[in-house]
């Protein structure tokens, strides 16, 4: 999703010859549609990894019945930046990326006279829980204020960088001078954190959850504390959308089918994505599961458009874009057509409250519990038999691994929190409450 290595000069070196949807056999009977996606940015799976594995797009194209043979060229990238570079060069027709890279996509498209349009949404979180700041497991840092003067890795121009900037500003720290920001790709930043050359890492899905699951990190700041929506979306070249509206319609219908599959078969979907990406299925499920951090819906909700407009100022301050005309970038005509009469229902839908879940070994379904205490009771009685256990933060609702959460005992209540800061905020308002270990929480619940 992001990056400064994304300079306009580099973009101009790319030939502006149309390829993608315009690539066809000499007789025009074969059409290649090029889709850029990010397999490991797992909140885009309904327009990328999962969609590809299910084959729904190809089926929709085959059903067009227009006498043409369609071929889909799936191109996997680590970030959104090269997808935008290829789109503005006319080489990718449809791409998916996070909200901040989408704005850069819009700006570069306009700059290079290759306009793009936001045509649907993949995964979103209305509070901002898709981004997390983590530290090493043994770190003594417990709050944002502790980051003053420290080395913090992030990817400039990404939603994770946006979370870092806003969080630091709220903590009274100048994001430009108060920390030493390391502009790194997610994998590089993860290695820097593990090696000790970075004190903290601010990243997007699925890096914080992955490192935490692996025991290589612990949460310092839950992005949902900002209470600002974050999302991922699908962008298409304007000329492609106009030239081949039936193909874009087929893609969006296929995305809707993939979304339905994910909602109806969350464990199977997590296993498919895990197999395709090499990520642990338990980490995929943390974000994309039945009560995961991300909600999937192709509709372009007004709250997300408003958040996109607020994001522009962050990118401008980083000198990554100038003004971006968000209203002209957002084009919901195509997804409205694809979803048909159900579109209004999609717009009005809201995410269900997160619930505690246990994933038993060998099970094809998870078990849901009405409270974290009941989850703990089950976990205590089935230790060694669980692939993973998940609990929602008591104040933000962000799902997290039960054994990695910060637990608070308040009378008979056992309350989980993603990060120390949210736990401490609760303690400040509830005299007598105290932090306990996961082992103590299990013992108290059983």
Automatic annotation (TrEMBL):
The lineage of its organism: Bacteria, Bacillati, Actinomycetota, Actinomycetes, Kitasatosporales. Gene3D superfamilies: Periplasmic binding protein-like II. Residues 81-269 form the SsuA/THI5-like domain. PANTHER family: ABC TRANSPORTER SUBSTRATE-BINDING PROTEIN, ALIPHATIC SULFONATES-BINDING PROTEIN-RELATED. Residues 1-20 form the signal peptide. Pfam families: NMT1. This is ABC transporter substrate-binding protein. InterPro entries: SsuA/THI5. Keywords: Signal. It comes from the Bacteria.
């Amino acid at each position: 999703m992001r990056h400064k290595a994304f300079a306009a000069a580099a973009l101009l070196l790319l030939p502006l010859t149309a390829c993608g949807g315009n690539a066809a056999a000499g007789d025009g009977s074969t059409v290649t549609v090029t889709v850029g996606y990010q397999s490991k940015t797992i909140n885009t799976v309904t327009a990328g990894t999962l969609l590809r594995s299910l084959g729904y797009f190809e089926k929709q194209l085959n059903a067009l019945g227009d006498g043409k043979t369609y071929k889909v060229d799936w191109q996997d990238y680590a970030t959104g930046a090269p997808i935008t570079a290829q789109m503005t060069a006319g080489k990718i027709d449809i791409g998916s990326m996070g909200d901040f890279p989408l704005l850069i996509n819009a700006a570069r498209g306009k700059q290079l006279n290759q306009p793009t349009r936001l045509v649907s949404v993949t995964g979103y979180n209305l509070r901002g829980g898709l981004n997390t700041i983590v530290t090493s497991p043994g770190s003594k840092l417990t709050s944002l204020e502790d980051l003053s003067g420290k080395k913090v890795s992030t990817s400039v121009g990404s939603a994770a960088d946006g979370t870092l900037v806003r969080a630091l500003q709220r903590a009274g720290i100048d994001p430009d001078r108060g920390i030493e920001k390391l502009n790194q790709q997610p994998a590089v930043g993860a290695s820097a954190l593990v090696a000790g050359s970075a004190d903290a890492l601010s990243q997007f899905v699925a890096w914080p959850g992955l490192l935490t699951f692996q025991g290589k990190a612990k949460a310092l700041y839950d992005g949902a504390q900002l209470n600002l929506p974050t999302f991922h979306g699908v962008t298409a070249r304007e000329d492609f959308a106009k030239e081949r509206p039936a193909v874009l319609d087929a893609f969006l219908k296929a995305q809707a089918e993939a979304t339905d599959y994910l909602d109806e078969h969350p464990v199977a979907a997590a296993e498919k994505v895990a197999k395709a990406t090499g990520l642990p299925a338990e980490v995929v499920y943390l974000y994309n599961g039945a009560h995961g951090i991300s909600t999937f819906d192709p509709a372009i909700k007004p709250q997300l458009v408003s958040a996109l407009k607020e994001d522009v100022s962050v990118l401008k301050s980083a000198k990554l874009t100038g003004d971006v005309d968000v209203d002209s970038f957002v084009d919901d005509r195509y997804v409205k057509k694809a979803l048909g009469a159900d579109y209004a229902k999609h717009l009005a839908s809201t995410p269900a409250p997160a619930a505690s879940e246990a994933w038993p070994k060998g099970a094809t379904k998870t078990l849901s519990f009405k409270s974290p205490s009941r989850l703990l009771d089950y976990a205590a009685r089935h230790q060694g038999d669980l692939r993973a256990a998940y609990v929602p933060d008591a104040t933000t609702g962000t799902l997290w691994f039960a054994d990695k959460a910060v637990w608070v005992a308040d009378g008979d209540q056992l309350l989980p929190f993603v990060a120390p800061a949210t736990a401490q905020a609760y303690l400040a308002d509830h005299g007598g409450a105290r932090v306990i270990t996961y082992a103590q929480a299990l013992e108290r619940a059983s």
